[in-house]
Amino acid sequence: MFRFLILALLAALAPALRANNIDVANIFLGDRDLSQHSRTIRFDVGWENSWRVTTTPLNWDAAWIFVKYRIGDGAWQHATLSGTAQVPTGTTVDVTTDGVGAFVYRSAPGVGDVLHSGIEVVWDYAADGVTDDDLVTVEVFAIEMVYVPEGAYFLGANGNDIAEFYQVDGLLPLSTDPYEVDSEASIRIGTLNGDLNFLGATIVGNLPTDYPKGYRGFYCMKYETSQQQYVQFFNHQPVTRQLNLDLSVQGTLCANLAQFRQTFCWDAASQATTSYPYVPISFLSVNQMLSYLDWTGLRPMTELEYEKASRGTVYPVPGEYAWGNAAISTTAYTVSEENNPDEHVGNADDVPPSEGNGLYFGCRLRRGTDILNGPVRVGAFAASGTRFTRISSGGSYYGILELSGNLSELVVTVGDPVGRAFSGLHGDGELSEEGWGDVLDWPLGGLGYGSRGGSFLTPRSSLRVSAREFAATYFTAGEAHGFRGVRSYPN
């Protein structure tokens, strides 16, 4: 018991875990309930620029909470949650039905920084094979998420973007009107009247009922996965897994990555580090991305969910970007506070108010006369300038950032049978012995995936919500590719 008290005290005094601007602090592991073979885990979680609104878009942001534990000095494993023991006033805590994690968010409308103090979740340690006598240590992790409510929306925008979606009109064969998704029912993709199709395609099959189509509510990561988040994940793996999860597996050395603002580095003699913690991670293979998503209890996003998360429920605007119009900045961006937590665009107010902000090839970051070949830190545009609008932040209908530009978004494609077989199962927090995601219906390798949203290396047309030129392209590791996770809700 004495040793347990010391471990609990160290957990309570440990530095807060930081992921962009979200903090978990004051972690405390409670006494065992020997009748239920469970323990409470208490913690505080807070983040900046939180919201819950009862007007359009009727949504909120949240923290996705999951817990890892280890027995003695053993490997870190995923903790199963069975409910809550204490929820502070003004806070909602939704533990998922599979016990993989919980969503924490405001109970009432509000906007601004938020701190949820004294949350207690219940760990069903018996479900994880832990005995009453095992000496355990726990860590609590948090990822900022945004809720995308259930509801109908449209695919495509009648703007002739490359390979964009449209609804087949038997009377007007040249029509490319948007296709309305009004349920999660199976969708026929073909050439018959009312079918979903995309420019350049003929009959490619059916989109099954289980494929997540974006009609059902889901949570989406507010930002692209950062280097810090991947480092944190990586450092909680045994060396045998790290050998597969290291970026050098792709044949690229640390020194070569830095020119693309990618500074993840690991030498097997110490923990992995990065000097650009708030810049999104790139150069990951699909399998490495899936490992992170499985470990966090999330899943990859489908390309239909990408369009819903971007434009919301409003009727599409031809050529629109994630911020809701077809105008994009052509002002060369200059970086300020480079490589700091508040890195931002120094000349954001020089951009006309009607033009949205997104990083693309013709508008890359600059340090004086030097061009920076890489993405800006996650959420940077939202903290730049003085206007703080959806357009200036580059935010989506629901407040999700960088869905147009910065790094491209990994999506499960509808463009091939492998992608269409995806049924939306979530990660369970555990990986294979080799360190790979092992969810049953997740395609492994690049087949079944593509990218949407464009990047700092693509033309601005690739940033449009409907643009699909890379949606069914075999996905490979590279400097322009990033990812974020989602989770269906309720679940």
TrEMBL record:
Database matches in InterPro entries: CTDL_fold, SUMF_dom, SUMF_sf
UniProt-listed Gene3D superfamilies: paralog of FGE (formylglycine-generating enzyme)
Assigned keywords, A-Z: Signal
Signal peptide: 1-19
Domain named Sulfatase-modifying factor enzyme-like: residues: 216-336
Protein name: Sulfatase-modifying factor enzyme-like domain-containing protein
Organism from which the protein derives: Neolewinella marina
